[in-house]
From TrEMBL:
CDD domains with a match to the protein in the record: SIS_RpiR (cd05013)
Name the UniProt record assigns to this protein: MurR/RpiR family transcriptional regulator
GO MF assignments: carbohydrate derivative binding; DNA binding; DNA-binding transcription factor activity
Nucleotide-binding among keywords: no
GO biological process: carbohydrate derivative metabolic process
Domain HTH rpiR-type stretches: 4-80
Lineage: Bacteria, Bacillati, Bacillota, Bacilli, Bacillales
Listed Pfam families: HTH_6, SIS
Residue intervals of the SIS domain: 126-267
Keywords: DNA-binding, Transcription, Transcription regulation
InterPro entries, per the entry: Homeodomain-like_sf, HTH_RpiR, RpiR-like, RpiR-like_SIS, SIS_dom, SIS_dom_sf, WH-like_DNA-bd_sf
């Protein structure tokens, strides 16, 4: 049986809501695309209800929190509407430019949704750990390996001893040589990828700080075990054509960490940036 969407569930339960909950429901139905970027205070003010009513509304519709409601809306508005990454796409008659526009829309929406899942304090903790790291190790498999490689390249430019490998057995000795003060960045959308979990646990045994870039899922092993969690919205089904929007959210977080770090250490590495640039220009043909 197909599960009701969050908006359909709200519409079906409209007559059972309290007067305050009806105000909130009506606002969400009319402005669903705005809600994921709101706080409870903003929604309550716009709907003409109290913040407590927003919390009660979430529980009434079977959503544990306002954050969970926003995530459900994000998924519905981006993925459910477009369905670009499930196998039904082969049954549609979309032209190439139509598919390009759909991919662009979904990727953009997924990146914007990350503002609802990233915890400011966790981001600050991650930034501090990375800035002070002696060594940074990145690891992801499948689509996440591309994100790990991009991160490794960027932080090498900043002068860090940075490494990654898509091969599990190569990662083992790299992780074995981590120590306290070093950082291991585990990248896994599901938070359940066995290889990533095993290397994360091994890195933790070496007293390295484990930072997880993973979807917001408190039940996943990686979410539970990481020292610092940089959470992504759940924007793709597990069985899919390939990593698209989920990879974009990973890269967005990595770019943010890179810029945050450059902002703090840039003055001491800018000379090397210029030297590297001069060498690149010299080698052009």
């Amino acid at each position: 049986m197909k599960q009701l969407s969050i908006l359909a569930k709200i519409e079906n339960q409209m007559e059972r809501f309290s007067p305050a909950e009806k105000k909130i429901a009506a606002y969400i139905m009319e402005h669903a695309e705005l809600v994921p970027n709101m706080t409870t205070k903003e929604l309550s003010r716009n709907a003409g209800a109290s913040e407590a009513s927003v919390v009660r509304f979430c529980k009434t519709i079977g959503i544990g929190s306002f954050t969970a409601l926003k995530l459900a809306l994000v998924r519905e508005l981006t993925i459910a509407d477009m369905n670009i990454n499930d196998f039904s796409v082969i049954e549609k008659q979309d032209a190439p430019y139509d598919l390009f526009n759909k991919v662009t829309y979904v990727n953009k929406a997924a990146i914007e949704a990350t503002t609802t899942t990233i915890d400011k304090r966790e981001l600050e903790k991650a930034a501090e750990a990375i800035v002070n790291a002696g060594k940074i190790l990145f690891y992801g498999v499948g689509g996440s390996a591309a994100s790990a490689m991009d991160a490794c390249y960027k932080f090498t430019k900043l002068g860090y001893v940075s490494a990654m490998s898509p091969d599990f057995h190569t990662m083992l000795p790299l992780a074995a040589n981590l120590k306290e003060g070093d950082v291991f960045v585990a990248i896994s959308t599901s938070g359940r990828t066995k290889d990533v979990l095993e290397i994360s646990r091994f890195a933790k045994k070496q007293h390295a700080t484990v930072i997880a870039i993973t979807k917001l899922d408190p039940s996943s092993p990686l979410y539970r075990e990481a020292d610092i969690k940089l959470c992504l919205p759940d924007v793709e089904q597990d069985h899919r054509i390939g990593s698209m929007a989920s990879r974009m959210t990973q890269l967005n977080v990595i770019d943010a960490l890179y810029l945050i770090t450059f902002h703090q250490v840039g003055s001491r590495v800018i000379k090397k940036f210029h030297e590297t640039r001069e060498e690149v220009v010299r080698l052009r043909r």
